[in-house]
Amino acid sequence: MPFYNYITPSQEQLLHFGLTDTAQALKNLDYLRTGLGESACTELLPIFFRSLSRTADPDMTLNNFERFVSGLDDVPAFVSLLRANPAVLAPLLTVFGASRFLSTF
Asked: Long-range pairs for 85-89 at CB < 8 Å and ≥24 separation?
């Protein structure tokens, strides 16, 4: 799914990725746009969505990922890490979708 700054995923697209609470998903995506920045979201959210549906709980994954990003001290370093090695995102999302406790570390 292409993801552009000014296009909000539809409810059907969010459901396709396994998200059931689409209203909260849209809020989290807005928070991520703010936290990561527009260009990072444009680049990284398609990778995120490809991995999201493979997680144990996509809603929890998105919630925990948003909390994680909100708590980062150095967002540009995290974005640089993901740009350099996007394969890091899938295992990170696996943890976020499996355990809120582990997501806090």
From this structure: 86/44, 86/47, 89/44, 89/47, 89/48, 89/51
Residue with tokens 């993801």: 3
What does the pLDDT look like over 55-102, one tens digit per residue?
999 999 999 999 999 998 999 999 999 889 988 999 999 999 988 777
Cα distance between residue 20 and residue 87, in whole Å: 25
The two tokens of residue 42 are 């444009």
How many whole angstroms separate alpha carbon 38 and alpha carbon 81?
A: 17
- List the one residue out of 42, 102, 92 whose CA is nearest residue 62: 92
pTM, two decimals, is: 0.84
CA distance linking residue 59 with residue 18, whole number of Å: 8
